[in-house]
């Protein structure tokens, strides 16, 4: 007899009315339920291969074709680029600061049902020792964070993703952010668009016409898209300046201090104004080294603390040269035949075991 499980899954997929940043994953608010029905006839997923970088491939299926949209006169317009989703798994395995596989299960069910649908999805995990490079530069970097989601939790999450025909990628010595940034470049070169599913604001430095984010918003219990338009409306500058701006402002969540504790009067408004004129942190610092670029306090900060800002840049910039190669099979339409049974069973276990 099939089992059914009601989940609070609100409608998801519309662009957020205003930019919102989520710091973590919380319990979903109540809304209309979506019923998942597990049947014994569910198709088993195909075997997956692993390597030293723990990469597994989803089974090949028909390539996601480019769709033509009708113009106002009824004639077909330029074909839209197909999408590839990168799922940043680690932050979805937490409810606030506590590990929670039930939170992961619900966000994943929402993601499959209302966001990615049948588009290709690649799940990315932090590699062992992924933080060490940045911690050598700055000991406070993510010093308060739990290291990984735990061995037991990690294996169960990986199993669920593979059973839902999602390739899983982990590269030793690199954070998931760096792996996603590297693979994003490779996907764009193949003519696809990229959607990064994560609450991590580090990914904002990648936003462009062909790269957008979709973030879990605990307050409303849904995923919400965040685009180039949202970024410009929120920060009043182009995403190409995002990394440079964050070097001034720091990142409290990651333990990266900004310049304010050294120069209290140097705030976001000053940084945005200077970057709008000079384009990037390096251009700004090079110019400040030979001539005055702003008021005395700003000029003094740029000349005295140039090395400090450059170190922030090295810590906060996502790497694009990770030793990982995109597999063309990852660009295939995802086989969703196992979603209902796998997710129902996964969530049912946590209803019995309690909060993980």
UniProtKB/TrEMBL annotation:
Task: Give residue ranges for domain 5'-3' exonuclease.
Answer: 80-336
Q: Which Pfam families match?
A: 5_3_exonuc (PF01367), 5_3_exonuc_N (PF02739)
Biased composition of type Low complexity is found at 40-62
Q: Keyword DNA damage on this protein?
A: no
| Record GO biological process | DNA replication, Okazaki fragment processing
GO MF terms on file?
5'-3' exonuclease activity; 5'-flap endonuclease activity; DNA binding
Q: Residues annotated as region Disordered?
A: 40-80
Entry keywords, A to Z = Hydrolase, Nuclease
This chain's protein is named: 5'-3' exonuclease domain-containing protein
Q: What organism does this protein naturally occur in? A: Panicum virgatum
């Amino acid at each position: 007899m099939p089992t059914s499980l009601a989940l609070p899954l609100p409608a998801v997929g519309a662009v957020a009315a205003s930019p919102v940043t989520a710091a973590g994953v919380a319990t979903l608010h109540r809304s209309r339920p979506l019923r998942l029905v597990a049947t014994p006839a569910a198709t088993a997923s195909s075997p997956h291969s692993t390597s030293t970088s723990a990469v597994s491939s989803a089974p090949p299926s028909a390539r996601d074709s480019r769709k033509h949209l009708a113009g106002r006169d009824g004639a077909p317009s330029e074909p839209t680029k197909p999408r590839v989703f990168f799922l940043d798994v680690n932050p979805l395995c937490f409810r606030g600061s506590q590990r929670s596989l039930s939170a992961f299960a619900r966000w994943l069910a929402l993601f499959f049902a209302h966001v990615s649908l049948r588009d290709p999805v690649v799940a990315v995990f932090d590699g062992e020792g992924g933080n060490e490079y940045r911690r050598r530069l700055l000991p406070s970097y993510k010093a308060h964070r739990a290291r990984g989601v735990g061995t037991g939790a990690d294996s169960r999450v990986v199993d669920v993703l593979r059973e839902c025909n999602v390739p899983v990628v982990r590269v030793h010595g690199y954070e998931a952010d760096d792996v996603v940034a590297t693979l994003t470049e490779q996907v764009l070169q193949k003519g696809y668009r990229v959607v990064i599913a994560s609450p991590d604001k580090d990914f904002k430095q990648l936003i462009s016409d062909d790269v957008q984010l979709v973030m879990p918003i605990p307050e409303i219990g849904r995923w919400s898209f965040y685009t180039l338009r949202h970024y410009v409306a929120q920060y009043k500058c182009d995403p190409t300046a995002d990394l440079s701006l964050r070097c001034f402002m720091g990142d409290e969540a990651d333990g990266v201090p900004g310049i304010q504790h050294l120069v209290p009067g140097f705030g976001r408004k000053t940084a945005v104004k200077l970057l709008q004129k000079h384009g990037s942190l390096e251009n700004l610092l090079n110019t400040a080294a030979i001539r005055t670029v702003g008021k005395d306090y700003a000029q003094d900060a740029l000349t005295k603390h140039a090395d400090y800002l450059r170190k922030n840049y090295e810590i906060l910039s996502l790497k694009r040269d990770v030793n990982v190669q995109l597999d063309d099979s990852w660009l295939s339409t995802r086989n969703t035949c196992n979603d209902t049974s796998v997710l129902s069973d996964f969530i049912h276990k946590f209803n019995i075991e309690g909060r993980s």
